Amino acid sequence: MRWGRPGAGAAGTAPPLPRTDVELREVTHAYGDRTVLTGVSLTLTESRIGVIGANGSGKSTFARLLNGLVVPTAGTVLVDGLDTRTQAREVRRRVGFVFQDPDAQIVHPTVAEDVAFGLTNQGVPAGEIARRVDEVLVAYGLDGHRDHPAHLLSGGQKQLLAIAGVLVMAPQRVVFDEPTTLLDLRNTRRVARVVDGLEQDVVVVTHHLELLAGFDRVLVFEDGRVAADGTPAETVPWYVARCG
Ligand SMILES: Nc1ncnc2c1ncn2[C@@H]1O[C@H](COP(=O)(O)OP(=O)(O)OP(=O)(O)O)[C@@H](O)[C@H]1O
Asked: What pTM was estimated for this model as a whole?
């Protein structure tokens, strides 16, 4: 099991998505007087990027900076040149975010209504909403559940619903914050397969190191700084050794 770059033609004959590049310039973030990220400068261009590190090292804060859910206390985050501080709406069209706990993301009573939520918000015409919602429900094996109460889905199905609700918005990059932490092995594999097949570029924060084998780049966070940055073969053994 691994999350890697999808094979050529993974999306059929659709043209490749434009790339979304994210640049962090000397980014520092503090919650109140507690600084949790310090002077992070990076450019993210690769298709498959993993983020690992100890609890509290700043990974989730970093992930949330990438689409403007959190704005830096100092420094700048640019998505295709758009400043997350002032152009959050445009940034979020490009970069979607999947939370660790799908309950944080599910806001509507039924599965289909929940997936439609973001499109409705954007004023997309009803016919197009119906078509796009159908497409993602089929893609994520949820079409048999379209009128079911979302809160009664299993943990794995809820995570797939949360992913469907992000992907229906057609972002170019998707940030996943520990998407499998709450799942059993079967659902971890299921979600991993979904991530594996995405044509979108991804950033995945995870403690499941084995899932990063096919990734292009892995960042290791330590005390709010990037302590290692390289291929999985370079960074994962380094991190494991650091953990003693
Ligand atoms: N909203 C917040 N308010 C105050 N402190 C916060 C907030 N969010 C995170 N923190 C603190 O910031 C530090 C970094 O948290 P963050 O969630 O970014 O780390 P993490 O590496 O993702 O951790 P984990 O692996 O446990 O999820 C932690 O000490 C955390 O307690």
From this structure: 0.90
Q: How far is the CA of 117 from the centre of ligand 1 (A)?
A: 28
Instruction: Identify residue 159 by its one-letter amino acid code.
Output: Q
Q: Which of 105, 43, 95, 25 is nearest to 64 (CA)?
A: 95
pLDDT tens digits, one per residue of 188-220: 888 888 888 899 999 999 999 988 989 999 999
Per-residue HEC secondary structure of 56-95 comes to CCCHHHHHHHCCCCCCCCEEEEEECCEECCCCHHHHHHHE
Check: CB of residue 77 under 8 Å from CB of residue 29: no
Which atom of ligand 1 lies at the shortest distance from residue 31's CA? 4
Q: Please state the ipTM of this predicted complex.
A: 0.97
Q: Which two tokens stand for residue 97?
A: 């975010």
In this structure, which residue's CA is closest to atom 16 in ligand 1? Answer: 58
In terms of Cα–Cα distance, which of 204, 202, 212, 206 is closest to 237? 212
Ligand 1 pocket mutation pick from 28, 36, 178, 182 by most atoms within 8 angstroms of CB: 36
Q: According to CATH, what is the number of the domain 22-242? A: 3.40.50.300
